[in-house]
Amino acid sequence: MTDMVSVERDGRVATVRFDRGSRANALSQRLIRDLTQAALGFHDAPDISAVILTGRSDQFTMGADLKDPERQDPAQVPLSQRRLLQRAGPRLCAAWEQVDALTICAVEGWCIGGGMALAAACDLRVASRETVFYVPEVERGMNMSWGSIPRFVALLGPARTKRLAALCEKIDAETALDWGLCDALADPGGTLARAQEIAGSAAALPPTALKMVKQDVNVAAMALARATAHRDLEAFLLMQESEDFREGVASFLEGRTPDFTGD
User: Which backbone phi and psi does 159 adopt, to 5 degrees?
Assistant: First the structure.
């Protein structure tokens, strides 16, 4: 599809791979757009029963690319423009959540921040036994956005979501399986094969009935999602105005311990 995103089809199963060419496999603005377009290609695809999403063979993604050339200093961008720019992440996750077919995320290595939001937007997750799930946004002086909090709550419940997204706990693969954050484990390098097994089971079922049940479950689980996530973009824009946001990003890029003040 692009130099960073490829799409393969095998019968009723499609596989979407993304690779930035670096080990971090960070989510740049361009990659976010490409992955959104890949998902939209499956919104009206009656011949596809399952879509697998995976990153590099050694790393899913270490989250949003804070060094992305398209990233601009919030102080230099008008609020009206920042609101538009910040819609890319929520649009990406919504596009994957709204794929008609069953979506399976195959995760190797780290799954961080925006990668966690993307993985939670899929129906199922297969993780390597060495995978670590991590939501560091609060440690960077910002709130977790992209509409992810209702999805985390639906998967984990309130208390575990607070541990993941508010306390920034790193969740290993065994804990993720116990919590319901992932649905199956595989040896390192084996997550795609395990995801293909699950996708094969989906492809053997009546496709329309499968998709109907998926949609019914999503509606039941996410009935209040819009009501509870509608403000996270605006909250992110507000946090961009804070000293803690600037300190969180600067300390991360400089590799030092942040000094937060609450301002």
Answer: -65, -45
Distances (CA, A) of 185 to 95, 199, 209, 237: 25, 15, 27, 37
3-state class (DSSP) for residue 176: helix
Whether 84 is in a domain gets the answer yes
Q: Counting beta carbons within 10 angstroms of the beta carbon of residue 187, is it exposed (0 to 12), middle (13 to 18) or buried (19 or more)? A: exposed
Token pair listed for 47: 């011949």
3-class secondary structure, 198: helix
Total structural domains within the chain: 1
SS3 55: coil
104: which 2 tokens? 């399976």
Q: Which domain holds residue 178?
A: 5-189
Tokens of 175: 């804990």
For the domain that residue 147 is a member of, what is the CATH number? 3.90.226.10
Q: What is the pLDDT of residues 106-138, one digit of tens each?
A: 999 999 999 999 999 999 999 999 999 999 999
CA–CA dist 222, 217 (Å, integer): 8
Strands 132-134 and 110-112: parallel
Q: What distance in Å separates the CA atoms of residue 105 and residue 198, rounded to the nearest whole number? A: 11
- Domain assignment present for residue 244? The answer is no
Residue 245, domain member (yes or no)? no
- As a residue count, the chain comes to 263
242 contacts: CB under 8 Å, gap ≥ 6: 141, 263
Report if residue 79 sits inside a domain: yes
Q: Angle, to 10 degrees, between the axis of helix 29-40 and the axis of helix 88-97?
A: 30
C-alpha 172/C-alpha 230 separation (Å) is 30
Q: Is the pTM of this model over 0.85?
A: yes
pLDDT tens per residue across span 15-68: 999 999 999 999 999 999 999 999 999 999 999 999 999 999 999 999 988 788
